Amino acid sequence: DKGTDATPVLFIERNITTSTNDVFLDLRNGTFRANGNNVNINLTGNHDFTIPATACLSAQKGTFTVCNSSNDNAKLILNGKLEVLEEGTINVGSTINNAGNDIEYNTATIDVSGNGHLNVSGQIRRALTLQTGDLTYIQSGGTVSIYGYNRDCNHNGSQYILNPTQNRRALFEV
User: What would the pLDDT profile of 110-129 be if each residue is shown by its tens digit?
Assistant: First the structure.
């Protein structure tokens, strides 16, 4: 818990060993940023990982892996900001497990720039229980790979975005 919004930044410059079954980090406020070439942190295994509206998970250098699960149950619940900068990598799930670990957004931002890499084994979509969603997607560089494993609805694409209406909005800036 750092501050009252995502502005304060906590830099992680060294690797931290965690158990894949435990939730390593509980974000509440502030930005948690990997900023070291050798940083490789597994934040969650078979558990959801939540980024609240007043927080940001950021990889500038190094790698974060969330929802590294062998099943489809774990997902990244994104209400704040997911940021992939310079040489950073964020993995949501693993392509080795063929599990559909998704990013579920309500009101959120995904920002990919530089040579950053965002890898999502499932989908980027609103929660299946919600009829609304607001995603700001900014990509000025880097690579975003959405594998779409085990999609929850076979008729939905890997990046599921509704048409703009009063309650549903997606802003793409590529």
Answer: 999 999 999 999 999 888 77
CA 104 from chain centre, in angstroms, equals 9
Q: What are the tens digits of pLDDT across the range 4-24?
A: 999 999 999 998 876 656 677
> Among 101, 90, 105, which Cα is nearest to 150's?
101
d(CA 150, CA 172): 25
b/e map 94-111, b = 16+ CB within 10 Å: beebebbbbbbbbebbbb
Q: Rounded CA gap, 78 and 131, in Å?
A: 16
Q: Which residues pair with 83 in a beta bridge?
A: 58, 111
The tokens describing 77, both together, are 């619940």
Pairing of strands 168-173, 103-105: unpaired
SS3 letters across 50-83:
EECCCEEEEEEEEEEEECCCCCCCCCEEECCEEE
Residue 158's pLDDT band (cuts 50, 70, 90): low
Closest to 88 (Cα-Cα) out of 56, 124, 108, 62: 62
> Global pTM?
0.87
